[in-house]
Task: structure prediction
Amino acid sequence: METANYKRIILKLSGGALTGGEEFGIDTVTLSNIADQIKQVVSMGVELAIVVGGGNIWRGAMAEARGMERTSADYAGMLATLLNALALQDALEKHGVTTRTQSALTVQAVAEPYIRRRALRHLEKGRVVIFACGTGNPYMTTDTAAALRALEINAEVLLMAKHHVNGVYEADPLTNPKAKKFDSISYSDALKLHLKVMDATALSLCMEHKLPIIVFDIDAPQSIVRSVSGEVIGTIVSS
Result:
C-alpha cells in the first residue's frame, strides 16, 4: 500500500472532472473511479475534504452573457455544485466510504449546514467531507471556496484536479500544443503571468497563508493517489 505524504488535504474537483469524455453531465464510470481513489486515500490514513465545482451542469458566466442577472446566475451555479456533491457522496458510500455533505446554502433535506467545528470532527473520525455551494456568496468561485475551506480546516495542501490539463502552462495547451509546462512555479509568478491556476482571489489567499497547491490531470491513472503519496505529477505552486 502507498504511504501518504500528508495528514489532511483538500481536493478541488472541477465540474468538468466528472464529465468523462462528455461536455456536460456526470459520467458514472469517471465518478466511480474517483470514488475508488478517494477510498484508497482514506485507507492510507489521510483526512480528506472535497470542494466540487458545477461547470458540468451550469456555467454562470454563460448565463450572464445571455442576459441573466449575475447574482442569480451565481446562486444557480451553487445549486449545481450541490447536485455534484450528492452524486459524489452516493458514489463514495457505494464504495464503503463514510461521507458527509456540508452546504454553504441552507438545504436541510439533503445536506448539513457548513459548520467548521463539525467538519473538523467528521475529518477526525475518518469521514470524507464534501463542501457544496461554494462560499455561499455570489461573485466567489469554487476555487476561492477551496482555498478558504483549506485554511479553515488547516489542510496541508490543496489538490487541484483539472480535466485534460496535467499542470500549469504558460498558455492554454489545448489551443497551443507548444506551450511550456511548469513543474513548479511561485504564487507571485503565477499571478504576474496571469496563469490559469485558479482565480486571482483564491491564489492570493493561498499565497498569503503559504498553502501549497498541486495542479494535476484527474484523467491520469491513479492521479489522486499518486499526488497524495508525494509523487511529482503536474505542477506545484508554492512560495
Q: What stands out?
A: The first strand starts at residue 8 and ends at 13.
